[in-house]
Amino acid sequence: MKAVETIPYTLYKGTFIDTPELGELRIRFNCLVGVNQQGVIDFIKEQDQITAKYDWKQYTGRYKHEKEREADIQMFLDNHGRENYFNYIKIEDNKFIFPGFIDTHIHSSQYPNVGIGLNIQLLDWLKIYTFPLENSFKMDNLQLVNDIYTKIIKKTLGCGTTCASYFTTIDNETSKIFGDLLLSFGQRGFVGKVCMNHNDDYPEYQQEEKHCVEDIKHLKQYFDSKNPDNEDLVKPIITPRFAPVCSRSLLTKLGKLSQDEKLPIQTHISENKGEIDLVKKLFPECSNYANVYDNHNLLQESTILAHAIHLSKEECKLIKEKNCSISHCPTSNTFIASGEAPVKKYLYHDKINVSLGTDISGGWDPSILSIIRQSILVSHHLSMKSGNNFDKLSLNDGLFMSTQGGAIAVGLQETIGTFDIGKRFDSQVIDLQTGNLDLFHWQLVNDDDNNDDKKLKMLNLLNKWVFCGDDRNCSSVFVNGRKVVSK
Amino acid sequence: MKAVETIPYTLYKGTFIDTPELGELRIRFNCLVGVNQQGVIDFIKEQDQITAKYDWKQYTGRYKHEKEREADIQMFLDNHGRENYFNYIKIEDNKFIFPGFIDTHIHSSQYPNVGIGLNIQLLDWLKIYTFPLENSFKMDNLQLVNDIYTKIIKKTLGCGTTCASYFTTIDNETSKIFGDLLLSFGQRGFVGKVCMNHNDDYPEYQQEEKHCVEDIKHLKQYFDSKNPDNEDLVKPIITPRFAPVCSRSLLTKLGKLSQDEKLPIQTHISENKGEIDLVKKLFPECSNYANVYDNHNLLQESTILAHAIHLSKEECKLIKEKNCSISHCPTSNTFIASGEAPVKKYLYHDKINVSLGTDISGGWDPSILSIIRQSILVSHHLSMKSGNNFDKLSLNDGLFMSTQGGAIAVGLQETIGTFDIGKRFDSQVIDLQTGNLDLFHWQLVNDDDNNDDKKLKMLNLLNKWVFCGDDRNCSSVFVNGRKVVSK
Which superkingdom is the protein from (chains A, B) (predicted)? Predict the structure, then answer.
């Protein structure tokens, strides 16, 4: 079990890249970061703060690295006075450390269906592909459950996803197993046991209202007892599937439960026009889809609204007022032709926080790196439709949504998402010289480059990473200071 | 040098999948295909034609495979009376053989720029990124030339591209080197030494008219002398870059050269609205962009028109009349926001042949598998804009464009593109159980499935391949019967 492994105090040295604010990219070369035994970033020293004593240019090859290491460690001991055991990990040039990706919308149980179901619209898609598969998650089907849940966690971790907000199924016992597997592989995760108490399309897959609420309380106790000390690695998240399969009474109870138990919320909103019409018919007393959730106290600062493609002006205003986050799922929205969410507008005009979701299995790709790419491409399609360049998302926008935007969405903006003192060390080491990418010598950062050249090269490399890279470039992954993937 | 290796007579046994007609998918399980010493498909026996004598169900494991092999070889000897040396290659269950991909638009010299240049429009993009790089392809820069050309050929071959129509640069000597490398790695290819005799944006990168024509004649002689007997593996293709950088006189000479030397043609058309306006200004005597090429006899049956996003009704009619092909480049068109080509309309309404191009480096991805995926996704965006489901491309449409559609575009529809007797064996073996894809046991084809179940499973697996697969699933590649990639 990864989550109980002790964490040695570790010094990481190399290029750190993150996005502290929307649109802002921070690149820190030759940065020394100390991560303590709780997995928390203890100090950060940038290049100019630590290189004064040594002119490293005079050293070459292995010897230079030894001198660098020696200087780093001396500086650490001078300033921190520690003599305990600690690790020193040097991330080589042309590799960099990026925050772990945060996937804010993913159905772990649907993983086998990725890539299947092209050309079928949302409501039919649920009936034909989704509900039958989800309904097979039961304790008498443990081999299947373990197989699917293990594969999706290993796959997303290998793609650099250190934290995800999952939908499992309505079944609570196998949702517990899913949480156990998260702890076992060491991924930070929210377990969204699905709540739905009516389902005309597939009546065998629904659950009584009271069981929904009891199950979530039970999950909370279960994970509280399982998490390592002071680390809420695995947590339940209240998950009304979406308004059309929940009664008013269930929605009310779930809203109350969120406040009583201080639990976050996730659900779907405005994915498809047929779905929006259905909600209007089912909740005639509500002015719009967002209002259905608000009426039942489900729009909280900790609420993740997945898709949010066709929001009205009033809905955007309400979502901003309540400080909810959107999970944008571009692959899914294009695959099942649900629409193109106006993300740039949400971010810069409505000032709503937007994060990214793979939406397995509406989306075919478990990698958030691919989702960044597709979010940019979908925004280009929007821009070609509107004739307005404003609609285009930048690379920095995509990188922000995949990390700090995700951290805000899951309520962990003070805990993960960037490299800052006091945050937990969830990160991935990116190596662009492995895998599928071909780089050329003049594209690589080297010691002779001045800082501006280095930054320009690094920007081009980041573009190449997002467009031409894949899981092969993610060479190791850390969650809470623990190495959970090493390739 | 791959291209001169002798080809042993080989029996291939396994699942063959191809697209003989637009929209039609042909899946042949347990199919036996003989490929002769010229790399030509000699015979094809489908399952029911060869299994009569043996009830394989009674055999299991290794023994079964031996019996199968024995029966195949006996059948071969009975019917073909050969006793010479031959190979027998069994493609295991859940692998399949697909025709090699044909990339009908790719700039080999631009490979280093993939993934870079987001958010810059076509004409600026050429000036900032493309022309300076292309201009460095000279004989005094051989290391760079070899590095780039080697990497792009190896990369595309590894992605299953067995044939490509390349743009190199205006430099003829290094274009010869590119052709040599194609022969050396064994890829079938068209070498498009670029013709452009004026270039206001980057004046140092252009060439006098007479040299353009001489160079192409010289290239033809050069490759004629280098190709193996009876195998036109490498051939020049007449390549006026696009109308804005070619004089009327150059265009006329290139049109004539194509007819005199029986050489195919490739160029760009209607990629970007700024470009279309420029062409209108430069050629006021022509009724539209396509008419510029037609006026100079450049619209032939062997002409590939890349992009073709914003064609008028008249242009579509003209292109159909002349039987030209379009090379659709969806990644490029979205990346630099050029537009969304109405491919479904071209294919089914205008009856124009459409093939696929990676358009390295306007497109970021050297894999035609990714281009199939993106062609479908772009068609979904078009469909969401038009509200018309008709606009959506199917998986079969994409697979056709990537193989037989490409073969028609390069004028080799009788030679490659499908598995039929008399065609040359350009193919890739796809293994979905390696690489990045997670499959589950119930998704795999097995002996107990009836033929309908097998086909349904195979359709889902093809969907998974196109959406979730990558180069890792391409386990070996054959060009003209020679194995050129083995992973």
Answer: Eukaryota
